[in-house]
Amino acid sequence: MTEERVGYRRSAKSPRGEARRRELLDRVADDLGQNGLVDFSLRRAARAAGTTHKVLLYHFAGPEELLTESVLQLRERRISRSLAAATEGADRPLADRVRSMWPILVGPESWVLDQAIGLAMYDPARYADLAREASKQYLPALLSICPAAWSEQRKGEVAELILATLRGFLIEWRTSGDGAGIEAGFAALVRALEREESA
Question: pTM here?
Fold first, then answer.
């Protein structure tokens, strides 16, 4: 590695370099949100970011890292909006909070995040992080909307239940579009959460 490359790598870690990296990541994530993962490449990402692929390689280790971090960025946006919907208004039952998240979960970037999970399942050796990080991202938000009086164990168990159930609904929505079935499933989830909260 040349001195120039080493120097640039060091500068990429500076506050200015980190700000530039975040800016590039935002632009690439925006492109993924609009165009999906199909035909993703470093050159496409560079066009979306308004730069060259060489500049992207100074800030990211390679296309896999850029893709993974862009997906994580999209997921963080989705989680932030879901949490905002769930926490709007005081003293709402947990079931209502969970139901209010659904329109966000099936929002515009949903299909891209579903593609990412599919890609991780198709080629786990290469894209495992696209799926592995999903639970780590979602669970803190779900834990935070559980009743404060619950024990950490109880919060964890219910958060895992909610996460697994919502994932199932998303798969059903994506593959069959069975709105009536999802609505029935939501009704059952609501009843289960109401019983849990009143116990």
Answer: 0.80
